[in-house]
């Protein structure tokens, strides 16, 4: 029997859901990301499973850094694959956090500002570590950054690329997935991409933080 009890839905997408869960024995709270395997064909299910396993393996490689989510456990059923992650971010993702900040009163905003001020260094450190481990995130954006207490953490390595077997981080050809608002010009133009493309995306996130905290219309 799977020892995790669902508590609340944290998010969902085309390929699965993220829930807050409680461990049946320890009562510890985690996030559970459940991936649905394609019902179309055995080949597609195998491809899906390989992609999800790759995401879990990349997350495990990076989880020693304090600003990257950590894998606690993983398991599979006939039609799903699930990963248990910590922390179950109490502040939600950065997009949600900034919306709550914008709507908050003066006292609430003052408390939240401390987290936002620290976010710059935390995220820069996390991305530098990621690249030192020869991983490109490839989808840095507020929805993939979590807030827990006063900490911010990178999450969602679903389209990340491991370039540890290559001399450099460059790739070309068609960029199969990206978020236009945060992607570097070379990504949108289907040009040569590298770890520098992550740095551009994080710079866009930094501009968003600046705009929110200092109430500027810079973006």
TrEMBL record:
Key words, A-Z: Kinase, Transferase
GO MF assignments: ATP binding; protein serine/threonine kinase activity
InterPro entries named in the record: Kinase-like_dom_sf, Prot_kinase_dom, Ser/Thr_kinase_AS
Pfam families on file: Pkinase
Alphabetized Gene3D superfamilies for the sequence: Phosphorylase Kinase, domain 1, Transferase(Phosphotransferase) domain 1
SUPFAM superfamilies: Protein kinase-like (PK-like) (SSF56112)
Record domain Protein kinase: where: 4-219
Protein name per its UniProtKB record: Kinase-like protein
Organism per entry: Lentithecium fluviatile CBS 122367
């Amino acid at each position: 029997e799977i020892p995790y009890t669902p508590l609340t839905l944290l998010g969902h997408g085309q390929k699965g859901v993220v829930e807050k869960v409680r461990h049946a024995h320890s009562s510890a709270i985690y996030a559970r990301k459940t991936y649905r395997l394609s019902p179309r064909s055995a080949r597609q299910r195998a491809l899906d499973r390989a992609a999800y396993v790759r995401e879990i393996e990349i997350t495990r490689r990076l989880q020693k850094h304090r600003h990257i989510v950590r894998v606690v456990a993983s398991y599979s059923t006939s039609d799903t694959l699930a990963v248990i992650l910590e922390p179950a971010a109490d502040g939600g993702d950065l997009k949600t956090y900034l919306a709550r900040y914008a709507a908050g009163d003066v006292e609430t905003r003052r408390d939240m500002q401390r987290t936002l001020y620290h976010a710059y260094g935390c995220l820069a450190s996390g991305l530098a570590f990621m690249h030192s481990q020869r991983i490109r995130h490839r989808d840095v954006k507020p929805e993939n950054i979590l807030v827990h207490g006063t900490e911010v953490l990178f999450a969602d390595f679903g389209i990340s690329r491991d370039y540890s077997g290559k001399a450099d981080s460059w790739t070309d050809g068609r960029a199969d997935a990206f978020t236009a608002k945060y992607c570097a010009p070379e990504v949108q133009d289907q040009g040569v991409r590298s770890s520098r493309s992550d740095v551009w995306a994080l710079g866009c996130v930094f501009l968003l933080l600046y705009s929110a905290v200092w109430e500027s219309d810079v973006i």
